[in-house]
Every structure is written in C-alpha cells, then in structure tokens.
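Internal tracking record. Fields below are filled automatically when a chain is submitted to the structure queue. Please do not edit lines marked as system-generated. If the sequence contains nonstandard residues, flag them in the REMARKS field before resubmitting.
Queue: standard
Priority: normal
Entity type: single polypeptide chain
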Amino acid sequence: MAETVEDVTLALSGPVTLASLGPVAALVGRGRADAPVDLSAVTRLDTAGAWLLTSSGRPLSGANDAQRLLLRTVQDALPPPRTVAPRRVHHRMGDGLAVVGMAVGAVFFAVAQSLGFVGLVMARLAGVLLRPRRLRLTALVHHMQEVGLRAVPIVALMGFLIGVVLAFQGAAQLQPFGAEVFVVDLIAVSILRELGILLTAIIVAGRSASAFTAAIGSMQMREEIDAIRVLGLDPIELLVLPRLLALVIVLPILGFVADLSGLIGGGLMSWTQLGISPSQFRTQLLADVGAAQALVGLSKAPVFAAIIAMVGCFQGLQVKGDAESLGMRTSRAVVIAIFLVIVMDALFSVFFAVWGV
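SYSTEM-GENERATED OUTPUT FOLLOWS
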C-alpha cells in the first residue's frame, strides 16, 4: 500500500506494482508537482510502478540498487518528449520568393514534358509514314467520325449565327454612311480569314480535347496503358496518332463548313436587312474577296488540329489513379488547348501581316 507522511515529501510504502497502480497514481497526483517521492519503504517495484514514478517527473529518493536499475531502464525506454514547432505568424519575404520560384519551376517542368511528348509523337509519326501499314485505319476512321462528322451540326450552326451577327452589326455601322455594300467584304474577310476557323477550333477544342483526355485518362486509371506496354505495343502509336491524324484531316473540312455557313448567314441577313440580293452578294464577294482569304484561314487548321490533339492526349496520359485527377486534367486540357489556339492565331496574324498575305 502507499501513504503520504508529509505535505512536502511523499513517502510510499509497501508494493508499488500493477495491482496497486490506481491508489499510487492517486497519491502521486496530489500535492505539489515538484515534491520528492521517498521509496525507502517500498517493498516491491515492477515495471508498471517504475513507469508511473518516472513519468510523474517528481524527484525520487530512497530507492535501493535494484529499484534504481529498474527505474533507469524504464527511463531510458520512454519515448522522447514531442516538441511542437511554433507556428509562424509573420511571413518573410523569402517565403514569397520561394513560392514564386517553385511555381516557375513547375511551369518550366511542364513545358519540358510537353516538348518531350511532342518530339516523341513526331518520331512515331515519322515511323508510321515510313511504314504506312502500321497505321490503324479502323481507329482513324472511327475518330474522324467522332471528331468530324458528329461536329458538323454545331459548327454549321455556329458559322451561320456568326455570319448573321456580323451582317447585322456591320449594317448598323455602315448604313449611316451609305456604304452598305461593303458589308459583304466585312463578312467575307472576317469569316474566311479569321473567325471561321478560329471559332471552329475553339469548339473542337472544347469538344474533342476533353474527349481525348477523358478516354485516355480512363484507360490510365484502369491501368490499361500499362497493359498495352506489357503486350509490347506503343501507346503513342496506338492511341495518340489515330486521334492526331483524324483531327488534322477533319478540322480543315469543319473550317470550310463554318465558312460556308457564315457566308450563307451573312448573305441572308444582308438580304433581309439591307436589301442586298443573293446574286448581288455573290457578285460583290467574287469581285472584292479572292480565294486567298479562304486559303489563309484554312491554312491554320492543321496547326490548330495538332495543338488540340496533342494537348488532349498528353493530359490524358498524365492522369493518376483517381477520378479527381481525371476531372482536373480534362478541364486543364480544354483551357490549355483554347489558349494555345488563340495564341497561335495571333502569331499567324502577325506573320501574314508582315509578309503582306
């Protein structure tokens, strides 16, 4: 048993073991926290009692040699006290610079990864061009149908509405000056040279880049990409090249559909709003706008198609094993593809302006 004899010193007597741990713990918990404990009257001491005494933090006295050895052994076996690092309230200037540096490093790493992927795709494409029998025509036709034929209605509707809007706004601006006939030039140049193929590429980027990322990303989540590699097949040649070639083939066709629909919508609005008949619209179009304007616009289509396809496939291959990663990569593919298409269109405009095309 255990008892206290003074208010300052705590004297324990009898066995201090697992069986008497409750009463001893109650006694040790009373009084001042720094009061010493006298063990001279303790008859038995086991590991549980030694743990209680050493963990209390009180000074110990009166222990015999065997008890001191047990107390020292238990003390050495106790885990070190955990120290909680103080939370920093004030941020230093170096912290912000570190965050900026890590962000810039992540951007450069992503750009390097993207360039490596582009180089790998170009190498595989060169190999397929040298050995055309390795091209999977069934997959190519399937993706041409998915990204091309199924996109014709939305592209045609978009082009028609853009032509209507341009004719309506052009008429409102040119009619006070008696220059209604130049609405034809405005519609033709705007649609054939810039808006037709640009808006088509944006629609295809939102529609096909997300589809490519979702399809390849789902295969990545189910470890089908790893299975393809185990079978000795190349995922780039099997999954990326059919999508890339399909989009390069069909995007100029979709751009032509958008141009034609835009001219039809602009001609219809010019007829109803300005009284320009379809024959007059066609005559003005052929007289002032040459085929070079349409060729300038359609020449951008293969580049836009390559950007959209590569961004979508690359983001799909970066998907991890969870649905959150798939959603993030899908949205990122759409944003990056549209951004790069707009940037490339601006570069094309500067290039054609410098060369006077």
